[in-house]
Amino acid sequence: MTSAPDPTPDAPAPASPRVAGSPATSEYAGYRLASHFQPIYSLTHHRAVGHEALLRATSLATGAPVPPMELFARFDGDDTRVGLDCAALLQHLAAYAGKEADEWLFLNVHPRSLASLEGPTIREIADALAAHGLRPGQVVIEVLESTLPDDAGFDRRIDELRELGCLVSLDDFGAGHSNFDRVFGLRPEIVKLDRSVVVRAEVDAHARRIASQMVSLLHECGCLVLMEGIETDEGAYTALRCDVDFVQGYHFGRPAPGLAGGAGLHALRAAWDRYDRQSASDDRLWQEQMSPYKQSIELASVLLAGGATMEEACRRFLSQPGAAMCYLLDKQGRQVVTNAFRDGQSHQPMESAERFAPLRDTRQARWSRRAYFRGAEAQPNIAQVTRPYMTLQGWRMCFTVSIQFDMGGRTLILCGDASL
Ligand code: G
Ligand code: MN
To answer: What is the C-alpha radius of gyration for the chain, rounded to an integer number of angstroms?
Structure first.
């Protein structure tokens, strides 16, 4: 729903907000600006480590609140948008002044404001911070992933902000067209995962594994990871399971005029209690599900060593639900005998045969890079199981159970694939 357009955006925008009346609010081009702060928690430290400043505006003419998105849309001309961004930044610094010295203040800034000549210079930002008694290291500049420009001016400004001592955060990562190139380019200290990531991960085990892998990939890129938009107990547990560093969302605390870092501690404790109770049993459940597959691949290796054929040796493994095929590899990861398939088939299941026909012939294949191969090498004679992955043999998600064993003085690795 949109209210009638406010006539004031057409008025020339002042270069900086006039601080009127209470120091907690300011005025800009016909609007009263105020700041709300939403707490950000470190799951590991078990406490608030920062707040995100969020703009709240009311029309001076009507007294009606204007949602931030609508306000920014009203100022969507280049210069006026930069003016509003700048006013919001100064508003937040003024409202935050004198508050938590040991916490981060996350500030949303449009890249255009940082790159534009009308935007604040680094000197002005440094002066504004000093005027409010804030250290640059307290400030995290958030830029939306979707708005990142390919612009040398912007990149230079980011470098200057870092030199000043500020941190940089990539906001709404994982929404729409996410691109790791942006992570490589911006090198953010903190990546904020868009709410859509937790929403999907809460209800779907596959999405949860992807979220968890995304977190480790971002960690590997040198970023800390914040999960945004957590609204439920399930979301908080998901964040813990995915090993994210920081969380933010209504479940822990809503945006409010003051800092309310203590309010989410109860939710934090509840999430950790659930983690302590449930994560070990979630893992155990997976291990228990895997146990018959591991036992039957162990049995198959014993039977093979005793002279059985692949078909005989692997019969029990291949009778397990979802089991598809077994293959025997040498120390170079090359297949040494014909694969054994479920129901004694001598070929791959038909459903994938047509579209993935170019991958069908595996006679020259080398599988020694795979997790099942390396895992089995690392712990000989003990059955290993991989996490679910995409197999090249049949285009489906599977897990592989594997074991390294000796057969007549030769070291071999027996593997069994099963679909989920
Ligand atoms: O993406 P960004 O960092 O700008 O997120 C901040 C916005 O998200 C704010 O508008 C805030 O009110 C909103 N927000 C914060 N927590 C939640 C949440 O748990 N659920 C939803 N739907 N929105 C949230
Ligand atoms: Mn943000």
So the answer is: 28
User: What was the pLDDT predicted at 150?
Assistant: 81
Give distance in angstroms: CA of 171 to centre of ligand 2: 6
This prediction has a pTM of 0.87
- Taking ligand 2, which is a single-atom ion, which protein residues have CB atoms under 5 Å away? 108, 142, 171
Please tell me the distance between residue 254's alpha carbon and the centre of ligand 1 in angstroms. Answer: 9
Listed by start position, the domains of the chain span: 25-263, 289-419
Predicted confidence (pLDDT) per residue in 235-294, tens digit? 999 999 999 999 999 999 999 999 988 899 999 999 999 999 999 998 899 889 999 999
Residues whose CB is less than 8 angstroms from the CB of residue 339 and which lie 6 or more positions away in sequence, other chains included: 310, 325, 326, 327
The verdict on domain 25-263 having CATH code 2.70.50.60 is: no
Spell out the residues 6+ positions from residue 81 whose beta carbon is closer than 8 angstroms to its own. 72, 75, 110, 112, 113
At residue 395, the pLDDT reads: 66
CA–CA separation, 17 and 84 (whole Å):
9
